[in-house]
Design goal:
Two copies of one chain form a homodimer.
Chain A (H helix, E strand, L loop, with lengths): L1 E6 L13 E6 L2 E5 L5 H7 L7 E5 L5 H4 L2 H10 L6 E6 L2 H12 L7 E6 L6 E4 L3 E7 L7 E7 L5 E2 L1 H6 L7 H5 L4 E2 L5 E2 L1 H4 E2 L6 E5 L9 H4 L4 E5 L7 H7 L4 H11 L3 E5 L9 H8 L5 E3 L5 E3 L1
Parallel strand pairs in A: 3-4, 4-5, 5-6, 14-15, 15-16, 16-17
Antiparallel strand pairs in A: 1-2, 1-18, 2-3, 7-8, 8-9, 9-14, 10-13, 11-12
Helix pairs in contact in A: 10-11
């Protein structure tokens, strides 16, 4: 997986920071997650090919997570896009976008498919042979979901030395990758495990923004490899976190620790902080493996 | 008047060019004209104080002229704005903005006053003691207005040497500025013209984007000091201008010439052109005094 942070600040776009948006490249998909104002410019700046984006996941309808979407949809149209575009978002966004297109008499020449989310339980919203995406219900001022991106278990890998020694016909290789025992050229049964290796461990990435401290998400993100969790405030401003239903860096670290996450990436910083290194320092007291999101930063895992 | 170009390209925001938006400072007003995506960032970059913006004029509901508005309205809220905000825009924008605020449960704590435009004739939409603003009906794919900003005739200026020589009481200065004859301290009538000078000639600025070649606007913009007129294409691509209801640089120059404008500022360039100097060259064949809008450029007149 490759995660490109397009924007990781809260509230409002500024000359040097962008609101929330990120791109997850996973198993030949290019998923766009949230789409604050300016996202299309950041996609260009980070050289993400527009045509590769076929699925957009919107956490909630606060402007710093979705005000860039209508412009991106329009730009896709101007670029004469033909591929379907799927948008997974809280109910309501379809109505806004449709109204904006109607008023500007600018209908897309590609198929725009809205998947309107309303469930308050985690649900599977996308699946193909290699990837699943689940919602992660969050606790924010309005209806909000995080998203869990899961690679599916891959095929077993052939141990080519062992396969050749065992004298197995090429026609059986596919069965071997699928985990079956097969027969060698003399008709003897060959156990799968003797000639194959286990597949790569499937990875999981959880995006959790925006939310109050919310242990209810733990069962969904348990043992996740990488957790992006909002940390809008530092503990010294904890009094602001509660009423706005945001977290401090320390709270994000507590979630990461309880979830037994591999890595915690912090983001959604309030623009009141000039030095975001303090978020890392605060979180590391609780949880060891902390990274800071920064606009334009790429994580590979 | 001081005109700051925040964005002057058509269609879509890019890493180095912005869609339409400009700020006109006139008689202590800071008018924002159009508000494409990214306008709030360009306001910051150009050090325009948000709090000074009390009137926003939107020409039409194509995204490159209005998709930045909802974000700006939200940012005003986050900055705890209290002053009223007046928005002059085609009917429909109020519905979109209201729906977006409803869905994000983010109502403004200041008064947001929409003036919905529907007239296809030029109309007075703003007036105070010093300034008038009129619509300029344009010919585009959807309902579109340009805007004419007019300074009102100011007060006469005191010729202080003459005033002192004429021995006129200070209490009469106000009357003199208003053009009245007054009496000197001996009771003799003093003619206004003998002790005052004429006011500065009031200036007029016309913003005309987007539009097809449209002579119908000429009566409204006749003798305007500065005309901003869209020039989306060069003549070599004139075939694209007609169906999209845009103009070429040459057509913009023909309008400026017939209107007897003082200066023509070109803008709304299609992003297909790397060298916008060709727009100036093409227009100057028809009209002498041509300027090119560029993002961040300031015109004072």
């Amino acid at each position: 997986m490759k995660l490109t942070i397009l924007g990781c600040h809260s509230a409002t776009p500024r000359t040097n920071t962008n609101p929330t948006s990120q791109v997850l490249e996973i198993k030949n998909h290019t998923f766009l997650i949230d789409c604050g104002e300016g996202t299309q410019v950041e996609l260009r700046r980070n050289k993400i090919k527009f045509v590769r984006i076929k699925h957009i996941f919107i956490s909630h309808l606060h402007g710093d997570h979705c005000f860039g979407l209508v412009g991106l949809i329009s730009t896709f149209r101007l670029l004469t896009r033909e591929a379907d575009l799927h948008i997974y978002a809280p109910k309501g966004l379809k109505e806004v976008i449709t109204l904006q297109m109607k008023l500007s008499d600018s209908w897309t020449n590609y198929k725009l498919i809205f998947h309107e989310l309303t469930s308050t339980s985690s649900e599977l919203i996308f699946e193909d042979e290699k990837v699943e995406v689940y919602t992660i219900p969050l606790d924010h001022r309005i209806y909000t979901n995080g998203f869990l991106f899961k690679e599916k278990e891959g095929e077993r890998k052939l141990d080519m030395n062992a396969v050749l020694n065992a004298d197995i016909d090429v026609a059986y290789y596919r069965k071997l990758k699928q985990g079956f025992d097969v027969k060698d050229n003399k008709g003897n049964l060959v156990s799968n495990k003797s000639v194959t290796k286990p597949p790569n461990t499937p990875k999981r990435y959880a995006f959790c923004s925006d939310t109050a401290y919310n242990e209810a998400m733990l069962p969904v993100i348990n043992n996740v490899d990488v957790l992006y969790h909002e940390a809008t405030f530092l503990e010294k401003n904890a009094v602001l976190a509660h009423p706005t239903k945001h977290c401090t860096a320390k709270q994000a670290a507590r979630i990461a620790k309880q979830a037994n996450a591999g890595t915690l990436i912090l983001g959604h910083y309030s623009t009141r902080y000039d030095d975001i290194n303090m978020f890392k320092e605060e979180a590391e007291v609780i949880f060891e493996n902390v990274e800071l999101a920064r606009d334009g930063k790429v994580f590979e895992f």
